[in-house]
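---------- Forwarded message ----------

FYI, see the Molybdenum cofactor biosynthesis protein B record below. Original note from H. follows.
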Amino acid sequence: MAHGKETEGPLGIAVLTISDTRTEAEDTAGALIVRLAEEAGHRITERGWVRDDPDEIRDMLSGWFPNDEVDAVITTGGTGIAARDITLEAIRPMFSKEIDGFGELFRYLSFAEDVGTKALLSRAAAGVSSDKAIFVLPGSRGAVRLAMERLILPELRHITAELRKDR
């Protein structure tokens, strides 16, 4: 596959909400990920909710990685600096590679367009595990919209093509 060539057709996306405070009914950020992904022509192949617990997070993701219908995983919640925000600590050891530019661009765009210097508190990140892209997003709707519309959806096909290139 040539550099820059993108995959065609819908991609399968797994969405995981991580929260001790929000119920499934109150999960507006996860619902927004689902809606924006589907509007972009992708399929939601897995959907889950877990507490801010490292074992629960890793168990859920580990169950999704072998699924050939999952091309990417997007999580929301638990990326701040409060003591209970452990999403990145749970997921980062699962990365075989980190996509550093995602977090850098997310914080830059957040600073420039929305939250100002509060952007430095964001620990949004992305990486690769089991040949699947994983995006770790904050739990706010604004952060999810920014990440999905400006970063993830415009590049997801290209990222997936790159991950499939040497298979």
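H. also flagged this: Residues 111 and 118 are 7 Å apart (CA to CA).
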